[in-house]
């Protein structure tokens, strides 16, 4: 067994400088000294964000708003003309003097309000209209009408045009622009809605922030490659929010009285109502949450709002997904296994050693991943022949697949462009793309050349009609050399390490080193460790601190203490996409949209500039990759894709990981709220880089995190080049902690898979906030330190160092809910609304089963293939009324369109448990045992379909009130669900 003291004494505790630089240089195609792109190449203008600028003009004060006229009614809504109500303000662009309003009641639970310029032509369509080919708009149902709608829209011209959206059933005002003005310019739109006191909003991603959004926060939404900074914009764009409101019901007249969650009492009775709002807009966004209001600001596009009436979170999510952005892709069964990766696996032999170590320590492993290390010069679709040769890879992958395991490589969004003066610097992938002219251009029609890992690069133009076929062809060609089992699609914001087309005229310098130090190169040694590392590893922490101080002193540079910020101003009639007049609080240096990204003026084949569709690049790349994998596997296997940059609807094709997080306790903490937010966005296949990506992990953090992530749908350990290895077998306690949590995960894989199917077919969520599952308890509105997996499993992880207890709430206990400890199988004694102290020594993660649940399970094994070959078990947790229910979905686990499926329903009541199945999938494994929790007295006999179970196979614990019924294999030899059955006790 590996001991911590052995690991701390090893040479990799303080990473060596040689590792990263050697890895980079051996991946190049030249022996000459490599050119490094200067750091200045990625420095843009220093702009001051408007929200930070005391001199910024308040558009609400300066602009006149609009007046509505020519109102035309129809059975599904109404339309009107909006005319500027005064002198144009032109504060952050050019005012649009004439707008068209459309209010469409699309279904009983869905309403759309669209405001667009009256006059749009081919020359400016992309400024205001988001292509429906790219992002579909919801359509009205055939029986939609005003009278059948849950909503009612009213409007007024006093003092200028404003509107309200009201819930008919309660009269609650859900959206209200009264007292504000609509500002609509070619590069700036602002509209404001009132909100109640202490509102509860969720969503508006992508951010690393609290689950319930702060009521005084500035949320920028714009795809950006910037790790995972707190509260700033990062990889994806999801302008959707869930609004939940709580009420007391007046016993006399039944009216709803608003309740603040901070003043609620968990023992009292309340009701709630939720609705959703989606702004279909791909431009840079800024949402300002303020007391009693929300301010929307965009850098262009149109107002295309869709409202979903709920009235529960589950209803809202289902309505949003089924009508608007699409249901999540169904994942392969195997993807629920454990995934191991790191930036720094240098060859196939190292991967084989990692797999062997998982087997040695008997830790489940399903997928092994490689980061950019495998590439030749960091080029997509080309392996480094010296370290990841195709012949050695074929042997490794054959053995891997034979063992029931899989392989996923990273694929980046940018493509290397060869050095024209180096005949040996050939890159057929580029040549084929150039022949079809499928790359992004500059405004003058020349090739847009940025810089990413290989050096100077080009970018697929996803608007090009041949782009998807081109991408598909490259993946098909490569798949014949490398038998990969999925794609990790990265750098798709889209990221570029320089401002503008910096490669134009510089291609003779390729391949080039990025304009920053790679981890492990001299000057970028990683000395960072988790909080409290100095307590558990004092000597090593002191050494790391000294090393960090020495490095900081050696690399310190003198910089000016004053920064000269620029204020952008509009030029009438001129549309400045590189430095728009309104500056969003973008997280890149100087708030410049061109920094660390393709510039906003990069131009697609249809003339659309990146400015208008920037945040959809990754979304389109995921679609292209999905189509490509269908071809790679001849439409036989479900594509498995994990992407970094996502947009509303990306879940139709891919899952998402949380990005370049940190080996810090706070990063683990926020992974829960990030995961829950992505459930709302329709991307349930979510996971964080377990144990952290940036910085060195340590035993305690990795111990806790490996257990937490075991209850996320996507479960992967991944870390940065030159940090210490953090595979779970590196520490003895992490081995045991991982195996403990994995035993639970692998036992409930059938439950996990059923949740994925429900998400795919109905739009339900896999991970759930307590507030969503228990909508009538306002005290749960901000709970983000524990969560539910489906309706039946609750997880309360330790999220801070040096703790051996954790506090958790047990929702519903004052209203009949029962919770059972997973490990002891006994009912929890807890009081309503009380933070109960729970023992949680290192290596223990508290897990609870909700009364009223039936969980189908199988015996844990080292792979999902082995697990699926084991006998079945059922865990039946009776509710306070003695009933329980559950369901199971099965198929072959990988087919896009399975030929055979099976749905099984379980119901327990009156001392019996029934199983009823429908479908043609034949599950051959027998039922081994049934465990029933909450049985108040020992039964005199147990029968299955009237046939008595041997008393020797029955156990009953009167203290814990647990009934165990074993020995069922012979009674279900034809398969656990081959026949309907009744178990009675």
Automatic annotation (TrEMBL):
What UniProt keywords are attached to this protein's entry? Answer: Glycoprotein, Glycosidase, Hydrolase, Signal
> Where is the Glycoside hydrolase family 31 TIM barrel domain positioned along the sequence?
328-755
Give all residue intervals belonging to the Glycosyl hydrolase family 31 C-terminal domain.
763-855
The terms under GO molecular function for this entry are: alpha-1,4-glucosidase activity; carbohydrate binding
Per its UniProt record, what SUPFAM superfamilies does this chain match? (Trans)glycosidases (SSF51445), Galactose mutarotase-like (SSF74650), Glycosyl hydrolase domain (SSF51011)
Q: Which InterPro entries match?
A: Gal_mutarotase_sf_dom (IPR011013), GH (IPR017853), Glyco_hydro_31_AS (IPR030458), Glyco_hydro_31_C (IPR048395), Glyco_hydro_31_CS (IPR030459), Glyco_hydro_31_N_dom (IPR025887), Glyco_hydro_31_TIM (IPR000322), Glyco_hydro_b (IPR013780)
Is Glycoprotein among this UniProt entry's keywords?
A: yes
Q: What is its EC number?
A: 3.2.1.20
Taxonomic superkingdom:
Eukaryota
Signal peptide location in the record?
A: 1-19
Entry keyword annotation includes Phosphoprotein: no
Q: Which reaction does it catalyse?
A: Hydrolysis of terminal, non-reducing (1->4)-linked alpha-D-glucose residues with release of alpha-D-glucose
Boundaries of every Glycoside hydrolase family 31 N-terminal domain copy: 141-245
GO biological processes: carbohydrate metabolic process
Briefly state the protein's biological role: Hydrolyzes malto-oligosaccharides, but has a low activity toward soluble starch.
Q: Which family does it belong to?
A: Belongs to the glycosyl hydrolase 31 family.
Name of this protein = Alpha-glucosidase
Q: What is the lineage of its organism?
A: Eukaryota, Fungi, Dikarya, Ascomycota, Pezizomycotina
């Amino acid at each position: 067994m590996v001991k911590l003291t052995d690991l701390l004494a090893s040479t990799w505790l303080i990473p060596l400088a040689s590792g990263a630089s050697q890895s980079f240089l051996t991946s190049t195609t030249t022996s000459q000294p490599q050119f490094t792109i200067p750091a200045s190449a990625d420095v843009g203008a220093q702009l001051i964000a408007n929200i930070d600028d005391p001199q910024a003009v308040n558009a609400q004060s300066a602009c006149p708003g609009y007046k509505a006229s020519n109102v035309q009614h129809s059975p599904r809504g109404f339309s009107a003309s909006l005319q500027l109500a005064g002198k144009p303000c032109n504060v952050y662009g050019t005012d649009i003097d004439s707008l068209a309003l459309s209010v469409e009641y699309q279904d009983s639970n869905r309403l759309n309000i669209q405001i667009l310029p009256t006059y749009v032509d081919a020359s400016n369509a992309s400024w205001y209209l988001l292509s429906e080919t790219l992002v579909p708009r919801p359509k009205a149902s055939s029986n939609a009408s005003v009278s059948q709608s849950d909503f009612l829209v009213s409007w007024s011209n006093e003092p200028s045009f404003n509107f309200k959206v009201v819930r008919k059933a309660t009269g609650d005002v859900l959206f209200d622009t009264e007292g504000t003005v609509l500002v609509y310019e070619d590069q700036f739109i602002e509209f404001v809605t009132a909100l109640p006191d202490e509102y509860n909003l969720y969503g508006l991603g992508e951010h690393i922030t609290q689950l319930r959004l702060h009521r005084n926060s500035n949320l920028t939404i714009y795809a950006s490659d910037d790790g995972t900074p707190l509260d700033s914009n990062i990889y994806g764009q999801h302008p959707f929010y869930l609004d939940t409101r709580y009420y007391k019901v007046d016993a006399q007249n039944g009216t709803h009285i608003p309740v603040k969650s901070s003043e609620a009492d968990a023992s009292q009775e309340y009701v709630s109502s939720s609705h959703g709002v989606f702004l279909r807009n791909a431009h840079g966004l800024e949402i300002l949450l303020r007391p009693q209001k929300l301010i929307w600001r965009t850098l262009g596009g149109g107002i295309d709002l869709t409202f979903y009436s709920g009235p529960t979170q589950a209803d809202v999510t289902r309505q949003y997904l089924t009508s608007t952005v699409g249901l999540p892709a169904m994942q392969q069964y195997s993807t629920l296994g454990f995934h191991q990766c790191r930036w720094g696996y240098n060859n196939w032999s190292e991967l084989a050693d990692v797999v062997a170590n998982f087997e040695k320590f008997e830790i489940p492993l399903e997928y092994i991943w490689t980061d950019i290390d495998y590439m030749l010069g960091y080029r997509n679709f080309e392996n480094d022949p010296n370290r990841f040769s195709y012949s050695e890879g074929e042997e490794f992958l054959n053995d891997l697949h034979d063992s029931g395991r899989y392989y996923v490589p990273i694929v980046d969004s940018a493509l290397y462009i060869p050095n024209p003066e180096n005949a040996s610097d050939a890159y057929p992938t580029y040549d084929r793309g150039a022949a079809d002219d499928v790359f992004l251009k500059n405004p003058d029609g020349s090739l847009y050349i940025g810089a990413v890992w290989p050096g100077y690069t080009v970018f697929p133009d996803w608007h090009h009609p041949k782009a998807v076929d081109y991408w598909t062809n490259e993946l098909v060609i490569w798949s014949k050399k490398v038998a990969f089992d999925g794609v990790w699609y990265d750098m798709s914001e889209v990221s570029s390490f320089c401002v503008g087309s910096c490669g134009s005229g510089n291609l003779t310098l390729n391949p080039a080193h990025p304009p920053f130090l790679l981890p492990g190169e001299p000057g970028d040694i990683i000395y960072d460790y988790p909080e409290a590392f100095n307590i558990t590893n004092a000597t090593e922490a002191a050494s790391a601190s000294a090393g960090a101080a020495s490095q900081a002193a050696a690399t310190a540079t003198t910089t000016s203490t004053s920064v000269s910020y620029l204020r952008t101003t509009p030029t009438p009639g001129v549309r400045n996409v590189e430095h728009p007049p309104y500056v969003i609080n973008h997280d890149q240096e100087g708030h410049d949209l061109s920094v660390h990204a393709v510039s906003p003026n990069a131009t697609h084949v249809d003339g659309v500039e990146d400015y208008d569709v920037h945040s959809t690049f990754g979304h389109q790349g995921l679609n292209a990759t999905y189509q490509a994998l269908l071809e790679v596997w001849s439409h036989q296997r479900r594509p498995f894709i994990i992407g970094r940059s996502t947009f509303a609807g990306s879940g139709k094709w891919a899952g998402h990981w949380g990005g370049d997080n940190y080996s810090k306790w706070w990063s683990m903490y926020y992974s829960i709220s990030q995961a829950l937010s992505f459930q709302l966005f329709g991307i349930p296949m979510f996971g964080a880089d377990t144990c952290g990506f940036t910085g060195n992990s340590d035993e305690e953090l990795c111990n806790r995190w490996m257990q937490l992530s075991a209850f996320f749908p996507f479960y992967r350990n991944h870390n940065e080049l030159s940090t210490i290895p953090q595979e779970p077998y590196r520490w003895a306690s992490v081995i045991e902690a991982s195996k403990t949590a994995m035993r639970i995960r692998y036992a409930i894989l059938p439950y996990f898979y059923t949740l994925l199917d429900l998400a795919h077919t109905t739009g339900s969520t896999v991970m759930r906030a307590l507030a969503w599952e228990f909508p009538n308890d306002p005290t749960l509105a901000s709970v983000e330190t524990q969560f539910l997996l489906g309706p039946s499993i609750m997880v309360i992880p330790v999220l801070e160092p040096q703790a051996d207890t954790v506090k958790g709430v047990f929702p519903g206990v004052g209203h009949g809910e029962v919770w059972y400890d997973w490990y002891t199988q006994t009912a929890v004694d807890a009081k309503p609304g009380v933070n109960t102290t729970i023992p949680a020594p290192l290596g223990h993660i508290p897990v609870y089963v909700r009364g009223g649940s039936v969980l189908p399970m199988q015996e844990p094994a080292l792979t999902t293939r082995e697990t699926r070959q084991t006998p079945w078990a059922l865990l039946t947790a009776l509710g306070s009324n003695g009933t329980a229910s559950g369901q199971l979905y099965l198929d072959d686990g990988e087919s896009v369109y399975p030929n055979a499926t099976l749905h099984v329903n379980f119901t327990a009541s009156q001392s019996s448990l029934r199983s009823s199945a429908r479908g043609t999938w034949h599950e051959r494994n027998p039922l081994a045992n049934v465990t029933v929790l909450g049985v108040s007295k020992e039964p005199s006999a147990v029968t299955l379909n009237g046939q008595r179970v041997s008393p020797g196979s029955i156990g009953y614990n009167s203290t814990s009130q647990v009934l165990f019924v074993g020995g069922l294999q012979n009674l279900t030899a034809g398969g656990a669900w081959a026949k309907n059955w009744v178990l009675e006790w």
